[in-house]
Amino acid sequence: MLDEPANGLTHGEVDELGDTIREIRDQFALTVLLVEHHMSMVMSISDQVVVMEFGRKIAEGTPEVVRNDPKVIEAYLGAPA
Fold this sequence. Notes:
This protein is of the alpha+beta class. Helices cover 47% and strands 19% of the residues.
C-alpha cells in the first residue's frame, strides 16, 4: 500500500518510481494499492483504477475506460464549455 509516494518528486523521479513499482509488482507477483494524484504515473502502471471525488467513487475500470469517463473528465478537467 502506497499513499502518494510521488508527492514532491521531480518528473524524472516520478518516472523512476513508476518503473520501480512495476518491477517490484511483477517480480514478486504483488497487488499494489496506490493512492496518488499524479495521474500519468497512475495510468501508466495500473491495471485497474478507482476514481474518487469528495469521498465517493465516480469511476472504476481500466485506465483507458477511466480516462474517457465523462464524470472523471468533468471532476478533474472541468465541465466542457
